[in-house]
Amino acid sequence: MSPAILIAILFAFFILLSLLKGLKVVPQAQTMVVERLGKYHRTLESGVTVIWPFIDKPRTIPWRTSVSGQKGEKTVKLVDTKWIDLREQVYDYPKQNVITKDNVNVEIDALLYFQITDPMKSVYEIANLPMAIEKLTQTALRNVLGELELDQSLTSRDTVNAKLTQILDEATDKWGVKVNRVELQDINPPQEIREQMEKQMRAERDRRAAILIAEGQKQAQILEAEGFKESAIKRAEGEAEARIKRANAEAEAVKLLKGVFGSDSTYTQYLVAMRYIDTLGEMVKGKDNKVIYMPYEATGVLSSLGGIKELLKS
């Protein structure tokens, strides 16, 4: 084999090896930043592409990833990678202590959802993007919750989430990152504060129950009073109607008796005698009454009885 042929074969082998080494397949929703001779050259799109070996070099970046241990526990560590994930990602940060405006030390557990929109900025505008996002999130949490009291932080999670999202999105925009939302998973006050809150909630429930009972009793008393009122009105109306009917009956009786006796004096004498007898009957009424009543004017009574007898004869 002549030297020229050998050199041609070696050259072809070198070209083929360079092509294989420079061939890159970029997965969907991922990208890679390529530098040429130490300077930014281009950002690779998804699909098959070729770079010049020995001249073009992918830029490695630190990235945050979760690693499972032997017992199944997950730990977070930083690794160097050439691939930049363009999908929305979530960072679950470890719990941290935050002091609220009313000096209560609470434990916060937060989630951050973000997405890389400009790979070049995420590589060249910040040295360690995952760590920078984590520290920025922790600082923003302390600042926002430090302006709120404990009750406000517990009842205004949506407001806190929206404010944190706005702050982090504005701060990370120059890094080519879009913060979609921040979620507070849990806010844990100290044990003694939780016990006080439970006592306060129990007292509030007891107060509401007492108010409801008082309202019920008040309504029942109102209804009972209205019932008594209606009953008294009906009773009074019944008594009035009975009196009217008795008066009408007595008036009819008077007319009849006057027609029987003929004269007013005789009718008057009859009425006096009847009232006298009725009164005596009321005086001696009673089960254990052993008193004997004798009218002072017995002759008057006898004469009245005689008068009644004469009237009945007539």
Structure description:
It is a single-pass membrane protein. Its main location: membrane. Belongs to the band 7/mec-2 family. Keywords: Hydrolase, Protease. β2 and β3 form a beta hairpin. The chain folds into 4 domains: 57 residues, no CATH class; 128 residues, Band 7 domain (Tetrahydropterin Synthase, Chain A, 2-Layer Sandwich), CATH 3.30.479.30; 54 residues; 53 residues, no CATH class. The termini are far apart. α3 crosses α5 and α7 packs across α8. The protein is α+β, with helices and mostly antiparallel strands. The strands form 4 sheets. Strands 2, 3, 5 and 8 form a 4-stranded antiparallel sheet that branches. Strands 9, 10, 11 and 12 form a 4-stranded antiparallel sheet that branches. It is rod-shaped, with a radius of gyration of 54 Å. The protein contains 8 helices and 12 strands.
Shape estimate: rod-shaped
Helical proportion, percent range:
55-70%
Instruction: Describe the main β-sheet briefly.
Output: 4 strands, antiparallel
Q: Which class of secondary structure composition applies to the elements?
A: alpha+beta
| Number of beta strands | 12
The name of the CATH architecture of the largest domain is: 2-Layer Sandwich
**What is the domain tally?**
4
Protein name: Protein QmcA
GO molecular function: peptidase activity
Membrane topology: Single-pass membrane protein
Domain Band: 21-201
